[in-house]
């Protein structure tokens, strides 16, 4: 069980599509969220000739205003209930904190602490930074630039990934296609 959470518009559904290699999770470029409830996507991952069946839990975005698709208080309540239920049943194997690399966010630590407190040391938490297609000289530069700030905020992660989740078409540049492939 892999739970993907983060702010509205961070690219959680796009990350599901990147992982699964499909367009099964609806996405939107609007500021308003398009995921109104937790959606579960089953996917087979092949690691060293073994097939691992994973469930990706794509959650509604956090920090959307009271007029949003899913108001923040409701999104937090639903996510906390999901975490509690999964911890009591099959367990959570990984929490993926999805954040936009292009957005400075005061909510970064608040959201991290809110959900980290629910799983404590029991579940590894990784951070995935999205929207890095224009990061120079490479996507990993975001991490090199921000790792210390994240550490200073007492946020620790079992790992990180700097990605672009943008959908590619044949007219896109070779550089963008390469970054998507790296992701």
Give a short overview.
The chain is an alpha/beta fold and 183 residues long. The protein has helices spanning 12-20, 72-88, 107-119, 141-152, 174-182; strands at 2-6, 39-47, 50-58, 94-100, 125-130, 159-162.
Description:
This protein is α/β, with parallel strands linked by helices. The protein has 5 helices and 6 strands; from the N terminus they run βαββαβαβαβα. The chain has a 6-stranded mixed sheet with strand order 2-3-1-4-5-6, with helices on both faces. Strand 4, helix 3 and strand 5 form a beta-alpha-beta unit. It is globular, with a radius of gyration of 16 Å. The model has no long low-confidence stretch (mean pLDDT 89).
Helices and strands, with pairings:
Blueprint: E1 2-6, H1 12-20, E2 39-47, E3 50-58, H2 72-88, E4 94-100, H3 107-119, E5 125-130, H4 141-152, E6 159-162, H5 174-182
Parallel strand pairs: 1-3, 1-4, 4-5, 5-6
Antiparallel strand pairs: 2-3
Features of this protein?
alpha/beta; 6-stranded mixed beta sheet; 22% strand
Mean pLDDT across all amino acids: 89
- Based on DSSP secondary structure assignment, what is the total number of beta strands? 6
Largest sheet descriptor: 6 strands, mixed
Poorly predicted regions are none
Structural class by secondary-structure content: alpha/beta
Strand line-up across the major sheet: 2-3-1-4-5-6
SS strand fraction: 15-25%
- Gyration radius from CA atoms, angstroms: 16 Å
State the order of secondary-structure elements, H for helix, E for strand: EHEEHEHEHEH
Q: Specify the number of helices.
A: 5
Amino-to-carboxy terminus distance = 21 Å
Shape: globular
